[in-house]
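Data availability excerpt. The first of two example chains:
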Amino acid sequence: MRDDKKQFFVVVMHILFLLEIFFISSNGADIWEDLALPAEHLPYYFFSHGDVRDRCSRSSSCPYRELVDKVKCWGYESGCDANNTMSYPSCPEDAPYGWAKGKNDQMDQFWKSADFGYVRSRLEELTVFCKPESEADSFLSCSKYTRFCRAKKIYLDFTNAKLKVGNNRYREDLFKPGDVGGHCAMDRTGFLAEGEHKSPLQSWFAELEQYRSLDFRPIEDRKCDLVLDKPTIFIKLDAGVNMYHHFCDYVNLYASQHINNSFSRDILIVMWDTSPMGYGDFFHDTWKAFTDHPIIHLNSWDGKKVCIEDAVFSLLARMRYGLYYNMPLIPGCSGSGLFRAFSQHILHRLNITQNGPLESKVRVTLLSRSTKYRRLLNEDELIAALKSVGELEVSVVDYTHKFPFLQQLQVTHDSDIFLGMHGAGLTHMLFQPDWGVIFELYNCDDTHCYHDLARLRGLHYMTWQNMNKLTQEDEGHHPSLGAHKKFTNYAFDVSEFMRMVMSAVDYVKTHPRYIAEWRRKYGKPVPEKEL
């Protein structure tokens, strides 16, 4: 990295640090409760928030004083020693020819594309496109291809936006030149060079393309119908009825918080949707992990001029080489600290706690399906076989929208083994315990989707291998593609099914984190018969 870019990186991190301190300090007297971070995350937080760390060490009311001297860092911070990071990927298998130059390159690629190295890369890319000349001025910086942007004192004129008509959620004709901008010196040429990824869920180029230098200060000169002084995050959302796609929104929002170096919930989140249509969100409870305030719909600003003191344009769900959709994940590696931290962060803030391990049983959850396709034709037989084994605690669930999502998370987090057919419900694996096994009964020839997600989360993945012991109801009937393995139902050989389940049980019971947690909970060594 060039010296000037290194200097800019340090300056940006310092600015974000100061902003975070301000947001925490102004959020109430009991800042420790407001942090709302898992205990494991606090040393990482203190590393880049020295003022908060020092305040904690001096305060008798701080419950985290024993953690202030514990040096940990995520890996993207300036001065972070690799030995102090949450984790580094495990790459026991070599990558196929052409993927990597060697083991170190393989591990480095995984870290940069799927772990906190991804955050560092976006931070290093940040470029100022509209430069302020004073504290009262506006500011705009973006990472490459405008995948992530930060703005200060931004002006958004929705006077002629017509947000309450039509059905296009991602219109690109919302603004004319100057409808979006700020009082700062704009590098228009440099900004226009970042338009290669212009697309609804891949960048913010279309939304900021008409950003211009303004000859007025939007807030100070009272040019706004609405002024937001709370930090505000803009996000464009994928399908809210599909857990796999919607949690790509949440993962990228969490990564954006790391780029922004702020985890405050006293923020506003704006759903950038240029239509008046409703948004079906089966997982809306998850927003409580990010904000204490209702989600704002863009169309509520129709006809208004809106100014925002501090705005972030979040990473998006379908970016090229993004997290985790459209991610070409290098083979042979697993265990992303970013995805593990995401899981811990969401569970902590939604108050989902681990109730295991059980003293003498392994918890198995079978995800049933009430859909037309990918049902288990001999489900009752498989369940009976599971329940016949005394060391298994068996639960059968159907995660429809009628099953409250927080209760779903609790069941999943208490699942040592989670199994089911290929489908978005398997995204629940993100919230299994660290020792968990995800058993995708049959991947329907979509071999990478949930295997890659398991590798990101660092879980042991299994899927059906012996096709001679699997029965397909028919060839499958895709509405336009014809024969298709995702559009039919299946039966599984019971003996082979149980052999694979018991293999998963052995994995769970010998996992170091399972053993450590069992010892912590029961205060004694794990009996030999349990290992």
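And the second chain:
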Amino acid sequence: MGIEMSTSYVSLRDNHMLKVLIGNEPIPEGDNYWNELLDFSFSPPVTISDSRLLTDVLHESLFLLSQNDTLTKHFLKITNCFLQRAPSLADDVMSKNEIYMQKTLNALFLTRLFLQFFLQNQSHDEVLEHFSPAKLKSKPTHIRSKSDTYRATTDLKTTFTLPHLSPIIPIRHTTYTTTQPNMYVSDGALHIKHRDTLYERLILSLFTILTEVEIKRTTMLIHLESLRFLLVILGTQLFSRDLKSHKDMFLNTFLSLKNSIIIEVVIHLLDNLTRFSVTIPLLPTEKASYLSYVPGYSWIFGANAESSTELPQLSLSTEELIRRFSTYLLLVLILQNPLTICTHNPYRRIFSNFRDFADSPPTSNPGLVTSYERFYTSICACLHQEETVLLLYQTLLRHSAMKSFIWSKTEFSPLLLPLLETLYSAEANSLHHVYMITIIILMMSQDNGFCTCIHTQVINSVPWYKEKKLVCITLGSLLVLSLMHLLVTNLTLLRDQYIHSNCSAILANIGSKIQNLHNIPSQKIINVFEGISKRYSQIQSPVGEKKKEECNVSLLK
């Protein structure tokens, strides 16, 4: 009856059904084996440690599958099993056919697991061979060693790189140009004439699940696995030797979808952010690990976490994962640079133009409408997460209407307090995270209304500030205190010139509007400038190590 549930994945190595799947004997597509294969009942791994453990256990099996699949085409057949079941998934949800839903989830999970291994270890052309129904001659395939599979790009500091922060100005052309077989460019967008390839139908099926299948307790795992699958497919660029190559047919498929489909996808991803905006406790041993689920980082490679042999209970953390995976997918889609294949990113264009319910007339396009207030509330509730900070930056950078909506607020504490808390513990966060926050506050400080309002809003207590007890301090005074604290931390630990420049620019912007400054930030300003003066004197006249240490201590006061 398929793969048995076990608290240890080690037993999968000896599973008879799996051995047949990875063997060199082709099984006909209509054989009852495919129905029996999908009769396992355990859920896909949720935590990074479980994903790592599963991939470790099945590495040899996946290697054999990649070698034999050019003859057996078992990957294509298991993918077809999912594609045959996916269209009726919405009806199965309505009829509560849980057995059929479980088999659909199992087929989706196996397809994603196999494709993930192929993408990590084979070239783009070799991966496309697995989607081809024709029998191709087996070619020598370079498979990376097991140590190579999990190497590199697991550092959280590399998750969001600075080049993503520069604005991109799209250039549109109204021409028809031949690019690749079955493709043409119209109005700067790439279009595929016939969607008859397996991977194109697979991507469309995944998008259909996200947009048409209602999120319920019984469908959460299917939505979560669909989001994972899409992130894995979008991670193909990480393994490309030529970053400027346009051979990535997966990315081309994403960029060439109909405008109506892209609108539905973007709006549903935004709805997922607002649907689960309430902060939900994560699994206790994985509190800070889910950022690594971004494609190309430790979820794809396998994190260096301790292997866990006990599967955790999903409970409410599944909702949190759906929200965060939706954020990752939305960011990856809007940050794609089409290069010369397509002169603009349709996902970025749709994201930059969604409208508010309150301002949208009944005759307007309903697909481009969402709630600004719910979106803003959900952003404020999750600003302690790095991906949410990046989403806020992209919103302020690209969506002028949403930016104006945020600037119109008279209460900035829900937005600013989580950012200041992160700046206070800057040494415990990545430089990119801190840098993004300083840029966001710098953008806010350019608005005179913001600079005035923050000095009239009083905060009763600040529990995360440990140096002194802060009571009845204005938001503006807390901002000045946090910036001075960040300046000291940067001078002594981080030593990043861009963070220093941004902090100085923010202080210069709000300086003329400061009023009723609290005594603690006032004293902090004096101490910081006194410490900086001492350091400058030391630079002009070299001193011993002991005096340098004394200078660092004085800065920290």
